[in-house]
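Let's inspect a concrete specimen:
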Amino acid sequence: MIGAMASDLHRRLLTLDTHLDASIHFTRPGWDFGARHDLESDIAQLDLPRMEDGNLSGGFFVIYTGQGPLTPEGYADALDSALRRSQAIDETVHRFADRIGLAASAGEARALHEQGRLVALKSIENCYPIGENLGHLDTFREQGVRLAGPVHSRTNQLADSATDAPRWNGLSPLGEAWVERMNALGIVLDPSHASDAAFDRMLALSCTPMLASHSGSRAIYDHPRNLDDGRIRGLANSGGVLGYTTIFLSEMRLGAERAVLFDAHGRVDRMSADEQRDLAVGWRALDAIEPMWDADFVRYCAGLLHVLNVAGIEHVCFGADWDGGGGLPDMPDITVLPRITDRLLASGYSEDEIEKMWSGNVLRLLDDADAQATREP
Protein backbone atom coordinates (compact mmCIF):
# COMPACT_ATOMS: atom_id res chain seq x y z
CA MET A 1 0.00 0.00 0.00
CA ILE A 2 1.39 3.41 -1.03
CA GLY A 3 0.90 6.20 1.49
CA ALA A 4 -1.24 9.18 0.49
CA MET A 5 1.69 11.56 0.95
CA ALA A 6 3.90 9.50 -1.36
CA SER A 7 1.17 9.15 -3.99
CA ASP A 8 0.54 12.89 -4.00
CA LEU A 9 4.25 13.73 -4.14
CA HIS A 10 4.99 11.26 -6.91
CA ARG A 11 2.10 12.62 -8.96
CA ARG A 12 3.40 16.19 -8.66
CA LEU A 13 7.06 15.48 -9.44
CA LEU A 14 8.78 15.54 -12.80
CA THR A 15 9.99 11.93 -12.83
CA LEU A 16 12.56 10.70 -15.36
CA ASP A 17 14.16 7.34 -16.06
CA THR A 18 17.57 7.55 -17.72
CA HIS A 19 17.42 4.33 -19.76
CA LEU A 20 14.20 3.27 -21.50
CA ASP A 21 14.61 0.54 -24.13
CA ALA A 22 10.92 0.85 -25.07
CA SER A 23 11.87 2.12 -28.53
CA ILE A 24 12.47 -1.49 -29.59
CA HIS A 25 8.68 -1.81 -29.65
CA PHE A 26 7.99 1.29 -31.74
CA THR A 27 8.34 -0.56 -35.06
CA ARG A 28 6.62 -3.80 -33.96
CA PRO A 29 3.85 -4.76 -36.40
CA GLY A 30 0.51 -3.89 -34.83
CA TRP A 31 1.96 -2.55 -31.58
CA ASP A 32 0.49 0.70 -30.24
CA PHE A 33 2.45 2.91 -27.82
CA GLY A 34 -0.80 4.66 -26.95
CA ALA A 35 -2.59 1.47 -25.86
CA ARG A 36 -2.41 -0.33 -22.54
CA HIS A 37 -0.59 -3.67 -22.77
CA ASP A 38 -0.90 -6.62 -20.40
CA LEU A 39 2.28 -8.32 -19.18
CA GLU A 40 0.60 -11.70 -19.58
CA SER A 41 0.21 -11.24 -23.33
CA ASP A 42 2.82 -8.63 -24.25
CA ILE A 43 6.53 -8.36 -23.49
CA ALA A 44 6.60 -4.54 -23.17
CA GLN A 45 6.98 -3.00 -19.73
CA LEU A 46 6.14 0.55 -20.76
CA ASP A 47 3.45 2.31 -22.78
CA LEU A 48 1.69 5.67 -22.49
CA PRO A 49 -1.17 4.51 -20.23
CA ARG A 50 1.25 2.78 -17.85
CA MET A 51 3.51 5.84 -17.85
CA GLU A 52 0.48 7.74 -16.64
CA ASP A 53 -0.42 5.00 -14.11
CA GLY A 54 3.09 4.99 -12.64
CA ASN A 55 3.46 8.75 -12.98
CA LEU A 56 6.63 8.38 -15.02
CA SER A 57 6.97 11.76 -16.69
CA GLY A 58 9.43 10.41 -19.27
CA GLY A 59 13.09 9.78 -19.79
CA PHE A 60 15.76 8.83 -22.27
CA PHE A 61 14.45 6.60 -25.04
CA VAL A 62 17.37 4.54 -26.26
CA ILE A 63 18.85 4.20 -29.73
CA TYR A 64 20.38 0.77 -29.21
CA THR A 65 22.50 -1.08 -31.77
CA GLY A 66 23.92 -4.53 -31.19
CA GLN A 67 27.65 -4.98 -31.70
CA GLY A 68 28.75 -6.13 -35.13
CA PRO A 69 32.04 -6.43 -37.00
CA LEU A 70 34.52 -3.56 -36.81
CA THR A 71 34.52 -3.13 -40.57
CA PRO A 72 33.30 -0.42 -42.96
CA GLU A 73 30.36 -2.65 -43.87
CA GLY A 74 29.53 -3.34 -40.23
CA TYR A 75 29.66 0.35 -39.37
CA ALA A 76 27.44 1.27 -42.35
CA ASP A 77 24.79 -1.30 -41.45
CA ALA A 78 24.84 -0.19 -37.81
CA LEU A 79 24.54 3.48 -38.72
CA ASP A 80 21.53 2.74 -40.90
CA SER A 81 19.91 0.80 -38.05
CA ALA A 82 20.60 3.54 -35.49
CA LEU A 83 19.21 6.27 -37.74
CA ARG A 84 16.06 4.23 -38.31
CA ARG A 85 15.65 3.74 -34.55
CA SER A 86 16.07 7.49 -34.02
CA GLN A 87 13.43 8.16 -36.67
CA ALA A 88 11.07 5.64 -35.07
CA ILE A 89 11.31 7.50 -31.76
CA ASP A 90 10.52 10.78 -33.51
CA GLU A 91 7.59 9.36 -35.45
CA THR A 92 6.09 7.62 -32.42
CA VAL A 93 6.29 10.72 -30.25
CA HIS A 94 4.81 12.90 -32.98
CA ARG A 95 1.93 10.43 -33.36
CA PHE A 96 0.97 11.11 -29.74
CA ALA A 97 1.96 14.76 -29.61
CA ASP A 98 -0.98 15.66 -27.42
CA ARG A 99 0.40 13.38 -24.68
CA ILE A 100 4.19 13.39 -25.10
CA GLY A 101 6.81 15.60 -26.71
CA LEU A 102 10.48 15.48 -27.68
CA ALA A 103 12.93 17.41 -25.53
CA ALA A 104 16.52 18.23 -26.40
CA SER A 105 17.30 20.29 -23.30
CA ALA A 106 16.44 20.54 -19.64
CA GLY A 107 14.35 23.62 -20.35
CA GLU A 108 12.28 21.80 -22.95
CA ALA A 109 11.72 18.90 -20.53
CA ARG A 110 10.52 21.28 -17.83
CA ALA A 111 8.23 23.07 -20.30
CA LEU A 112 6.60 19.82 -21.42
CA HIS A 113 5.96 18.86 -17.81
CA GLU A 114 4.36 22.24 -17.13
CA GLN A 115 2.12 21.68 -20.16
CA GLY A 116 0.97 18.37 -18.71
CA ARG A 117 2.71 16.30 -21.38
CA LEU A 118 5.19 13.47 -21.01
CA VAL A 119 8.85 13.89 -21.95
CA ALA A 120 10.92 11.98 -24.53
CA LEU A 121 14.66 12.57 -24.47
CA LYS A 122 17.00 10.55 -26.71
CA SER A 123 20.17 8.61 -25.93
CA ILE A 124 22.55 6.23 -27.68
CA GLU A 125 23.53 2.91 -26.14
CA ASN A 126 26.69 1.82 -27.97
CA CYS A 127 28.33 4.35 -30.28
CA TYR A 128 29.54 1.53 -32.51
CA PRO A 129 27.33 2.92 -35.37
CA ILE A 130 29.46 6.06 -35.75
CA GLY A 131 32.30 3.86 -37.01
CA GLU A 132 35.48 5.86 -37.31
CA ASN A 133 33.72 9.10 -38.27
CA LEU A 134 33.06 11.34 -35.27
CA GLY A 135 31.06 13.62 -37.55
CA HIS A 136 28.18 11.19 -37.14
CA LEU A 137 27.91 12.43 -33.55
CA ASP A 138 26.95 15.81 -34.97
CA THR A 139 24.14 14.17 -36.93
CA PHE A 140 22.74 12.51 -33.83
CA ARG A 141 23.05 15.73 -31.84
CA GLU A 142 21.02 17.49 -34.52
CA GLN A 143 18.39 14.78 -34.03
CA GLY A 144 18.18 15.58 -30.32
CA VAL A 145 20.50 13.01 -28.73
CA ARG A 146 21.76 14.29 -25.36
CA LEU A 147 23.31 11.18 -23.77
CA ALA A 148 25.54 8.48 -25.27
CA GLY A 149 27.74 5.59 -24.18
CA PRO A 150 30.73 4.38 -26.18
CA VAL A 151 30.24 0.64 -25.87
CA HIS A 152 27.86 -2.20 -25.04
CA SER A 153 28.58 -5.81 -24.14
CA ARG A 154 31.55 -6.25 -26.49
CA THR A 155 34.69 -4.18 -26.92
CA ASN A 156 34.52 -1.97 -30.00
CA GLN A 157 36.52 0.69 -31.86
CA LEU A 158 36.05 3.25 -29.07
CA ALA A 159 36.34 1.47 -25.74
CA ASP A 160 36.71 -1.74 -23.79
CA SER A 161 33.48 -3.28 -22.53
CA ALA A 162 32.93 -4.32 -18.92
CA THR A 163 31.88 -7.76 -20.17
CA ASP A 164 34.50 -8.48 -22.84
CA ALA A 165 38.25 -8.91 -23.13
CA PRO A 166 40.11 -5.58 -23.17
CA ARG A 167 41.80 -4.29 -26.30
CA TRP A 168 42.59 -0.69 -25.45
CA ASN A 169 43.21 -0.70 -21.69
CA GLY A 170 40.31 1.75 -21.50
CA LEU A 171 39.64 3.99 -24.48
CA SER A 172 41.15 3.79 -27.94
CA PRO A 173 42.73 6.94 -29.44
CA LEU A 174 39.47 7.39 -31.35
CA GLY A 175 37.59 6.92 -28.08
CA GLU A 176 39.58 9.72 -26.47
CA ALA A 177 38.71 11.99 -29.41
CA TRP A 178 35.09 10.84 -29.00
CA VAL A 179 35.07 12.25 -25.43
CA GLU A 180 36.31 15.62 -26.69
CA ARG A 181 33.68 15.77 -29.44
CA MET A 182 30.92 14.72 -27.06
CA ASN A 183 31.86 17.57 -24.72
CA ALA A 184 31.91 20.05 -27.58
CA LEU A 185 28.43 18.99 -28.71
CA GLY A 186 26.97 19.05 -25.21
CA ILE A 187 26.17 15.33 -25.23
CA VAL A 188 26.49 13.82 -21.75
CA LEU A 189 28.84 10.83 -21.47
CA ASP A 190 27.36 7.53 -20.28
CA PRO A 191 29.89 5.04 -18.83
CA SER A 192 27.38 2.22 -18.25
CA HIS A 193 28.75 -0.93 -19.97
CA ALA A 194 32.29 0.52 -20.12
CA SER A 195 35.15 -1.32 -18.41
CA ASP A 196 36.67 0.07 -15.21
CA ALA A 197 39.66 1.36 -17.19
CA ALA A 198 37.41 2.99 -19.77
CA PHE A 199 35.31 4.55 -16.98
CA ASP A 200 38.46 5.95 -15.38
CA ARG A 201 39.69 7.44 -18.64
CA MET A 202 36.29 8.97 -19.47
CA LEU A 203 36.15 10.49 -16.00
CA ALA A 204 39.65 11.95 -16.38
CA LEU A 205 39.08 13.40 -19.86
CA SER A 206 35.53 14.73 -19.75
CA CYS A 207 35.04 18.45 -19.14
CA THR A 208 31.46 17.85 -18.00
CA PRO A 209 29.97 15.39 -15.46
CA MET A 210 28.93 11.93 -16.62
CA LEU A 211 25.63 10.10 -16.21
CA ALA A 212 25.85 6.33 -15.74
CA SER A 213 22.38 5.73 -17.14
CA HIS A 214 21.77 2.20 -15.82
CA SER A 215 24.42 1.02 -13.41
CA GLY A 216 24.40 -0.67 -10.03
CA SER A 217 26.63 -1.22 -7.02
CA ARG A 218 29.38 -3.82 -6.90
CA ALA A 219 29.07 -3.78 -3.11
CA ILE A 220 25.54 -5.15 -3.48
CA TYR A 221 26.41 -7.67 -6.19
CA ASP A 222 29.92 -8.23 -7.51
CA HIS A 223 29.60 -7.99 -11.28
CA PRO A 224 31.73 -6.04 -13.78
CA ARG A 225 28.65 -4.15 -15.01
CA ASN A 226 28.30 -2.62 -11.54
CA LEU A 227 30.49 0.15 -10.13
CA ASP A 228 32.59 -0.22 -7.00
CA ASP A 229 32.20 2.34 -4.23
CA GLY A 230 35.43 4.11 -5.19
CA ARG A 231 34.21 4.77 -8.72
CA ILE A 232 30.76 5.79 -7.46
CA ARG A 233 32.50 8.36 -5.25
CA GLY A 234 34.69 9.46 -8.15
CA LEU A 235 31.61 9.94 -10.32
CA ALA A 236 29.94 11.97 -7.57
CA ASN A 237 33.03 14.05 -6.81
CA SER A 238 33.16 15.10 -10.46
CA GLY A 239 29.51 16.20 -10.31
CA GLY A 240 28.22 13.11 -12.09
CA VAL A 241 25.14 11.01 -11.41
CA LEU A 242 24.44 7.27 -11.17
CA GLY A 243 21.16 6.02 -12.64
CA TYR A 244 20.40 3.20 -10.22
CA THR A 245 19.17 0.10 -12.00
CA THR A 246 17.22 -3.09 -11.31
CA ILE A 247 19.70 -5.33 -13.13
CA PHE A 248 22.62 -7.22 -11.58
CA LEU A 249 21.29 -7.06 -8.05
CA SER A 250 21.87 -10.81 -8.19
CA GLU A 251 23.02 -13.57 -10.48
CA MET A 252 21.32 -13.47 -13.88
CA ARG A 253 19.71 -16.82 -14.67
CA LEU A 254 20.52 -17.00 -18.36
CA GLY A 255 19.95 -20.67 -19.10
CA ALA A 256 19.35 -22.13 -22.53
CA GLU A 257 15.62 -21.41 -22.53
CA ARG A 258 16.08 -17.79 -21.39
CA ALA A 259 18.83 -17.28 -23.97
CA VAL A 260 16.45 -18.36 -26.73
CA LEU A 261 13.81 -15.94 -25.43
CA PHE A 262 16.35 -13.10 -25.25
CA ASP A 263 17.37 -13.75 -28.83
CA ALA A 264 13.73 -13.64 -29.86
CA HIS A 265 13.22 -10.42 -27.86
CA GLY A 266 15.89 -8.75 -29.98
CA ARG A 267 13.84 -9.59 -33.07
CA VAL A 268 10.43 -8.66 -31.67
CA ASP A 269 10.05 -5.77 -34.12
CA ARG A 270 10.17 -8.29 -36.97
CA MET A 271 7.66 -10.77 -35.53
CA SER A 272 4.03 -11.29 -36.42
CA ALA A 273 1.40 -10.49 -33.80
CA ASP A 274 1.04 -14.19 -32.96
CA GLU A 275 4.82 -14.60 -32.57
CA GLN A 276 4.94 -11.55 -30.30
CA ARG A 277 2.20 -13.00 -28.10
CA ASP A 278 3.94 -16.39 -27.98
CA LEU A 279 7.16 -14.68 -26.86
CA ALA A 280 5.36 -12.91 -24.00
CA VAL A 281 3.57 -16.08 -22.88
CA GLY A 282 6.83 -18.05 -22.97
CA TRP A 283 8.69 -15.35 -21.06
CA ARG A 284 6.09 -15.17 -18.28
CA ALA A 285 5.87 -18.96 -18.05
CA LEU A 286 9.63 -19.17 -17.50
CA ASP A 287 9.45 -16.31 -14.98
CA ALA A 288 6.95 -18.35 -12.96
CA ILE A 289 9.36 -21.26 -12.48
CA GLU A 290 12.75 -19.59 -12.88
CA PRO A 291 12.80 -15.80 -12.48
CA MET A 292 15.63 -14.12 -14.36
CA TRP A 293 16.79 -12.29 -11.23
CA ASP A 294 17.03 -13.65 -7.69
CA ALA A 295 16.19 -10.26 -6.19
CA ASP A 296 13.15 -8.27 -5.14
CA PHE A 297 12.00 -4.76 -4.28
CA VAL A 298 13.47 -4.99 -0.78
CA ARG A 299 16.91 -5.81 -2.17
CA TYR A 300 16.54 -3.06 -4.77
CA CYS A 301 15.80 -0.51 -2.05
CA ALA A 302 18.73 -1.71 0.07
CA GLY A 303 21.03 -1.11 -2.88
CA LEU A 304 19.47 2.26 -3.59
CA LEU A 305 20.01 3.41 -0.01
CA HIS A 306 23.61 2.17 -0.20
CA VAL A 307 24.45 4.20 -3.32
CA LEU A 308 22.73 7.23 -1.82
CA ASN A 309 24.99 6.89 1.22
CA VAL A 310 28.10 6.52 -0.96
CA ALA A 311 27.35 9.12 -3.62
CA GLY A 312 25.06 11.62 -1.91
CA ILE A 313 21.59 12.86 -2.79
CA GLU A 314 22.78 15.09 -5.64
CA HIS A 315 24.40 12.20 -7.49
CA VAL A 316 21.74 9.48 -7.78
CA CYS A 317 18.79 9.08 -10.15
CA PHE A 318 16.86 6.16 -11.66
CA GLY A 319 17.61 4.03 -14.72
CA ALA A 320 15.87 0.70 -14.21
CA ASP A 321 16.51 -0.69 -17.75
CA TRP A 322 12.84 -1.18 -18.56
CA ASP A 323 12.35 -3.27 -21.72
CA GLY A 324 16.05 -4.10 -21.71
CA GLY A 325 16.18 -6.85 -19.10
CA GLY A 326 15.18 -4.75 -16.10
CA GLY A 327 12.42 -5.28 -13.61
CA LEU A 328 12.04 -7.77 -10.77
CA PRO A 329 9.36 -10.35 -9.87
CA ASP A 330 7.59 -7.87 -7.58
CA MET A 331 8.64 -4.86 -9.68
CA PRO A 332 7.51 -5.98 -13.14
CA ASP A 333 6.76 -2.72 -14.94
CA ILE A 334 6.71 1.04 -14.49
CA THR A 335 3.40 1.12 -12.63
CA VAL A 336 5.34 0.27 -9.44
CA LEU A 337 7.40 3.49 -9.44
CA PRO A 338 5.40 5.28 -6.71
CA ARG A 339 6.64 2.56 -4.32
CA ILE A 340 10.15 3.99 -4.67
CA THR A 341 9.00 7.45 -3.64
CA ASP A 342 7.09 5.90 -0.73
CA ARG A 343 10.22 4.04 0.41
CA LEU A 344 12.37 7.17 0.19
CA LEU A 345 9.90 9.17 2.27
CA ALA A 346 9.84 6.37 4.84
CA SER A 347 13.66 6.53 4.95
CA GLY A 348 13.53 10.20 5.91
CA TYR A 349 14.30 11.91 2.62
CA SER A 350 12.57 15.23 2.04
CA GLU A 351 10.42 16.22 -0.92
CA ASP A 352 13.20 18.44 -2.28
CA GLU A 353 15.72 15.61 -1.99
CA ILE A 354 13.42 13.15 -3.74
CA GLU A 355 12.79 15.67 -6.50
CA LYS A 356 16.53 15.84 -7.15
CA MET A 357 16.69 12.05 -7.47
CA TRP A 358 13.74 11.83 -9.85
CA SER A 359 14.79 14.60 -12.23
CA GLY A 360 16.70 17.52 -10.74
CA ASN A 361 20.09 15.81 -10.87
CA VAL A 362 19.60 14.73 -14.49
CA LEU A 363 18.42 18.14 -15.65
CA ARG A 364 21.41 19.74 -13.94
CA LEU A 365 23.75 17.57 -16.04
CA LEU A 366 22.00 18.64 -19.23
CA ASP A 367 22.31 22.28 -18.20
CA ASP A 368 26.01 21.77 -17.36
CA ALA A 369 26.66 20.12 -20.72
CA ASP A 370 24.92 22.96 -22.57
CA ALA A 371 26.93 25.56 -20.66
CA GLN A 372 30.22 23.91 -21.65
CA ALA A 373 29.32 23.04 -25.26
CA THR A 374 31.13 24.88 -28.05
CA ARG A 375 29.77 22.99 -31.11
CA GLU A 376 33.09 23.75 -32.79
CA PRO A 377 34.66 20.92 -34.85
